[in-house]
Design goal:
The protein has 107 residues and is mainly alpha-helical. The chain has 3 helices and no strands. Helices cover 70% and strands 0% of the residues.
Length: 107
Amino acid sequence: MNDVWIKMAEFLGRLNGENVKRESYVRTPEYEKALEAWKEKELEWEDFLETLSAEQREKAEEILECQEDFASAQELRAYIQGYADCVQVLYRMGLITNNLNLKIPNL
């Protein structure tokens, strides 16, 4: 991976986690719908866990945590990819220049 994208990913990773209450924070209808669906299922999930043995509950919670970690990593990757795509588009349009002799990958 090109160093510029690594540095950009580090910066955007920090930015992504900041101030979710800001006016420009995007919450899509799909996100809102998924959040509402989870809120409805969360109590069901907790009730379901109570029906399991301690070992089964631990395994189910481990699986859910793994899924949440994966979803978070996917979200961060998509967020950073959006910025990378934006930079590439601006570069190809000539609106930003390559003044540091960085290799800008092809679209």
